[in-house]
Design a protein that fits this description.
4 strands, about 140 residues, alpha+beta, globular
């Protein structure tokens, strides 16, 4: 059970990191493309496709800052590794990740939604997650 949830989270992190790296290269090589209407539309479409694949219905209903700002990290903020896993119950698991420098910690809660594991919540230790919008 937790193995399947972990695979979902690892896939999400991998795809988000690839998205960030792609747009980081565009920023470096062709910044005008990044901020063009077509570039912004493509960036949003790619982001929405990733989020729709991995986020729970509840998470998708939340205000998504990243969908508005289309921000990405350079270096990628999704350069993360899972360092701890915890089964809450048969429908909920929690995973702790750290970044490359092992400084910033994130806690992801995954839920089993219609027999598929989805990311329901992400807490970032450097942000007051209770008052912040989700920034998946």
């Amino acid at each position: 059970m937790i193995k399947e949830a972990k695979i979902v989270l690892e896939s999400f992190i991998r795809e988000m990191k690839a998205w960030e790296m792609k747009w980081g290269r565009v920023l470096e090589l062709s910044p005008h493309e990044l901020f063009s209407e077509d570039g912004m539309e493509l960036r949003l479409t790619e982001l929405v496709n990733i989020q729709n694949k991995y986020l729970s219905e509840k998470a998708l209903l939340m205000q998504q800052d990243r969908r508005i700002t289309l921000t990405f990290g350079v270096p990628p903020e999704y350069d993360q590794k899972i360092v701890n896993e915890n089964v809450i119950n048969d429908k909920t698991s929690e995973f702790v990740t750290v970044n490359n420098e092992e400084k910033e910690c994130r806690v992801y809660t995954l839920v089993n939604e219609k027999l598929v594991w989805k990311i329901d919540l992400m807490k970032i230790d450097s942000i007051d997650w209770k008052s912040s919008r989700q920034v998946f």
